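Re: the pair you flagged

First of the two:
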Amino acid sequence: MTATDNPPPETDEQPFVSHLIELRDRLLRIVLVVVVIFLALAPFANWLFSRLAGPLTAHMPAGTSMVAIDVASPFFTPFKLAMVVAVFIAMPFILYQLWAFVAPGLYRHERKRVMPLLVSSTLLFYIGAAFAYFVVFPLVFGFLTKTAPEGVAVMTDISRYLDFVLTMFFAFGVAFEVPVAVVLLLWTGVVSAESLKNKRPYIIVAAFVIGMVLTPPDIISQTLLAVPMWLLYEVGVFLGTRFAPRKAEEEDANDSGHGEYEPLSDAEMEREFDRAEAEEHGDRPGG
């Protein structure tokens, strides 16, 4: 039996399997880090929930408190919060693992783009959540507790309160990602800066519509979400046009030996035609 009787396995299967193994390893690292942080936060779960409920309890009428409607909610709700906080704290590590997985398949100028965007998107999400906690929550809860009809005691369920504030954190965190989304649209050439500037009135209306959908039905929270989204949109347009990484692309093109395409002159085209005709006549029989 010769060596050709048993051909080697296809070479493109091994990289695919190795990618799956690497993805599995990185996902396991993410899960391990989140679990370790959660175990460290678990003893402080009740304290974390007390701090999270601070913006509401500070505006509740005297003699009232939060309630637990479900039997198991006093136990599970603080631990749910501890798990969310663990993921929140581990987010830089999670994004780094995702970045390390996709980075080998990117060009050099793409890697130079992605890393700043990852760092800025993480910081903007944290800033959006902090803005919701320190600015939006006191104003919203102060407004909502004062609008309760006379004779109605404000006693919010702890599990519903947690779901509400997590939704708000997510809404403001994603809203603060607007500059990153705008920069990506400009850098990839999907839209132009002039097009985004011309669509400014529609963007302002869309920001208030999004604020109306994602926030409680009060003008304060809607405005506090819509106005930052509009301002961050303007920041994204400015950064996308001013710091577009054209130099990095030109450096990569020069390094790879490929510059911009230049059409042939008339004299060069005539020489190419003459050379092609000469080769054609030379290939004919008897030529």
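Second of the two:
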Amino acid sequence: MGIAHEEADLRDLLVGRRLSGGIRTVRRQSLAYAYKMLKGDPDHTFGLDDWRTASIDEVVAAVAAGIGDRITDGDPELGYIAPEHTLAGIRAHADALAPFLRDGGGTVLLATGHPTGLLDHYADLARALRNAGNRIVRVLDDHRLDHAVGAHAAGETGIRFFGGVACAFHDEAILHTHRPDHMEAMIAAGGRIDLVIADHGMAGAAIAAGLPTLSIADANDIALFLARARGRHEHVLPIEDNFTPAEFAPVTAYLLRRAV
């Protein structure tokens, strides 16, 4: 099967599973998150400071450039990401990973604030990168943060790696989080990082630190699109992130096949 035919099949799958096209994340929520970011809500700024000088018009335009949809237009109870934008993001991630998978020798940090959807994807990438001769960073594994993070007091939440992927954890549970604190701690620990692959505040903190980053963003992950529009971040893959990992597996498989 040729790459063009395979990509056409992938487009159908993206739309059929509502990973792109008509998505579950509705415009009303995305717009509400945009306003929260503009107010400096730390759950929505992702560790980036672009919100301080942004207007709602700039933000809406930045999101539209990223997902192919204006979140102020159309039915507010529906959501949309243009499949062509998702496919372009997949191609961009694959092309950025290609030299690491071809030549090895890189140092890569993978992290997710959305483990219930994306952990398997990142773990598969970590395995492929490791097998190609790259070093997968596991900095501050099982380290607890010494300051409060949202509703969690100092020492209650920390970093734990699963399948080579950094996650936030509390007690026995891994957390869904938008906060940048865990990535900020890993970066502050020092050491070489050639590439970060992440989402939410895990990606935002890496972008803020000037690290090459591949990010995944749903339509409501506003700060990442604003950073992209301002030239701070290039490789955003726009896709619905509220899914079971099995639904995303064909995306991972296609991305890795294209990269090698």
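The radius of gyration is 17 Å.

-B.
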